[in-house]
C-alpha cells in the first residue's frame, strides 16, 4: 500500500539489485519475480523494493531454500604426494541440502584394480568424510573417489583425489650460462622429475679464490636465474 501510488518495483537478491534477464531465467513482470530452471545458485534472500514520489520502502527478506544432491566443495585438495608406509588424511568435503549425507569411498590404482574403502570417518555437522590412507606398495597409488548422497539423490560426479608417490627430485640437467658480463650472468637448466611434489630451485655462486658465497638465489617456478651485482 502506498500514497501516492507506487511507480516502480525492484527486486533485490542478497541485498543486490536483481535485473530482468530472460537468458538466465530471471523474469520480472509487474509485481512478480519468476525464476526458471532453478538451481542452487538461486538460493538466498530476496526482497522487493517499492518506489513512489515520496521515497522507497522494502519488504521483509524472504529466504529461498533450494534442495540439491551433494556436490564437491570447490576448496579441496586434489593431489597428495606420499611415500610408502606414510599415512595421509584425505578429506572429502561436500555441499548439500539437506545435510543428512551418506558417504562411501572407492580406490582405483594405476593398474585399474578397484576396491571399496570400508574404514573412514564422517562428520555430519561439517559435511565431510576423512580416510586415513597408507600406501604400502606400488599397487596403493592411484585415485580415491569419494561419493555422497542425500534424500534428493546421488552426487553427479565424485570428488577425486590423486595419490602419487613422492621422493627426492632428480638433478637438473643441461644447465647453461648466458648473457655473462663482468658483474652479472643468466643461468637456466632443464627440469628433471619432481618426485611427486612441487619443487623450488636454488642457485649458489661461490668464489673459489676468496672461499666466499657471492650469491644465493631462489626460484619457485622454473630453474632460470639472473644474478647481478657480482664482484669483478
TrEMBL record:
PROSITE patterns named among the record's database cross-references: IG_LIKE (PS50835)
InterPro entries attached to this UniProt entry: Ig-like_dom (IPR007110), Ig-like_dom_sf (IPR036179), Ig-like_fold (IPR013783)
Occurrences of domain Ig-like (ranges): 1-65, 70-162
SUPFAM superfamilies named in the record: Immunoglobulin (SSF48726)
Protein's recorded name: Lachesin
Source species of the chain: Parasteatoda tepidariorum (Common house spider)
Amino acid at each position: 500500500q502506498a500514497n501516492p501510488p507506487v511507480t516502480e518495483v525492484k527486486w533485490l537478491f542478497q541485498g543486490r539489485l536483481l535485473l530482468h534477464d530472460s537468458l538466465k531465467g530471471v523474469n520480472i513482470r509487474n509485481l512478480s519475480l519468476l525464476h526458471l530452471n532453478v538451481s542452487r545458485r538461486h538460493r538466498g534472500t530476496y526482497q522487493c523494493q517499492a518506489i513512489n514520489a515520496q521515497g522507497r520502502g522494502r519488504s521483509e527478506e524472504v529466504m529461498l531454500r533450494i534442495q540439491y544432491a551433494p556436490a564437491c566443495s570447490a576448496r579441496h585438495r586434489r593431489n597428495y604426494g606420499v611415500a610408502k608406509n606414510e599415512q595421509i588424511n584425505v578429506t572429502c568435503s561436500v555441499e548439500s541440502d539437506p545435510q543428512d549425507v551418506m558417504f562411501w569411498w572407492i580406490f582405483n590404482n594405476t593398474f585399474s584394480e578397484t576396491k571399496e574403502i570400508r574404514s573412514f570417518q564422517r562428520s555430519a555437522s561439517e559435511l565431510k568424510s576423512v580416510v586415513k590412507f597408507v600406501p604400502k606398495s606400488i599397487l596403493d597409488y592411484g585415485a580415491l573417489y569419494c561419493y555422497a548422497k542425500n534424500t534428493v539423490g546421488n552426487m553427479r560426479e565424485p570428488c577425486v583425489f590423486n595419490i602419487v608417490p613422492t621422493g627426492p627430485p632428480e638433478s637438473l640437467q643441461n644447465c647453461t650460462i648466458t648473457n655473462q658480463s663482468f658483474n652479472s650472468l643468466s643461468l637456466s637448466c632443464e627440469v628433471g622429475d619432481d618426485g611427486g611434489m612441487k619443487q623450488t630451485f636454488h642457485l649458489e655462486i661461490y668464489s673459489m679464490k676468496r672461499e666466499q658465497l657471492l650469491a644465493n638465489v631462489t626460484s619457485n617456478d622454473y630453474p632460470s636465474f639472473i644474478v647481478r651485482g657480482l664482484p669483478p
